[in-house]
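Quick one, T. Sequence first:
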Amino acid sequence: MVSHSEILASNALLNDATAPRVAVFVGATSGIGKLTLHALVATGASTRIYLVGRQSSFERTKPFIDELHALNPRATIIWTEGEYSLLSETRRICNEILAKEQRIDLLFLTAGYAPMFTDRVETEEGIEITQSLAYYSRILFVLHLLPALKAKAEVPGRVITVLGGGLERVSALHLDDIDLKRPGNFAGAKAQAHYLCLNSVALDKLAEENPDLVFVHAWPGWVNTGNVNRGVKEGTVWAWFVRWFLGPLIGLVSIRDEVAAQRYLFEATSACFGGAGVEWKGQPGVNVKGEEGRNGLFLVNFRANCTPNLKVMSVWREKAREGVWEHTMGVLRPYF
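Structure tokens:
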């Protein structure tokens, strides 16, 4: 168990030597990404952050960027515009960042929303938009930015994707319909469960092929980010349900913003995960292969505790991973 006081003590040690010098945040114009970005800047460390957001988000995000600069004049926030639900745009964004940076310490991925009460909607590239955001775009960001994440082997680069690490179930992964095109497969919680499973399978593959990096797939629990509202159509019964029941319920039971922010800052910087980072004297994190004190993929719950899900991950590693990866690369290959 990692206590909140231990998390705060670890984060208090962040400075120019221990904080990420260059970080990329995708989807941090709201929600957990925004909270974590603010917590990182608030450490006072000298850091350069690429905040990737859509054009439609800039006007509401600019006051936040100004706030960050006032909070820590030593932090540089670089607004990087792009429609990252499109894989072609994801490639362009990555190339733009790589043209400026040789080394990236942290890649923080939170873009997306749950398709709880929406119909299937495809992007102009023929990919369902929530799956592109929650899976394909995230993996493409990792693949494109790998050279910069691996540029300084003595300090492992770290990739954090926030979705549902530790909630994997073998039956939730639709191996015969990975893009959920068959009737009934694209349905609310079923689609979200499928997406989180895809992330864990693909990150397990990436972690094995890149043992010098740290990968974290996190489950945020109940955090009142407002993203639930994006998964409904205005004027429907479901919109009414979310507005008057589900939204207020989430507000009542959710983790406080400042608590969530500190937990994710801890996951982004602590040596608890892999052994490198801010010194950690507690129990080492356990990766999905059951190893302590080693890099790899860590499934982390909303209390910042590792939940390796060894049985499920072992089954997928043997029976599903290569098929999922082959399909994924078939989708992503045109965008390299």
